[in-house]
Amino acid sequence: MLLREAQEPELARLHTLIDTLLAQHRELEQAWSQVRWKLEGIWLGMKPELTLDEVERMVELYRAHIAIEEEQLLPLAARLLGDTQLDVVGRAMRLRRGIKEV
Fold this sequence. Notes:
The chain has 102 residues and is mainly alpha-helical. It has one domain (2-96).
């Protein structure tokens, strides 16, 4: 939807943002796969070695990702899409995450 509404120079910027965010998603998924089982182990009362470096890396990755979404992608989307389209995108994102209406 967003790509359909974008024209140059926003289109090029949007492609760059999407490429960056997708690369971050892959990096986050990889980091999460290494930390998740350790967190589950802690929850189950086991004592896996979860290092401060691993936790800090996850925090750093998420903060960087959210910053790009909030500071760059969302303002661009707000400029390109109307309120109705933004609502559709927001609903789809909430559904993917299992979040009920707000």
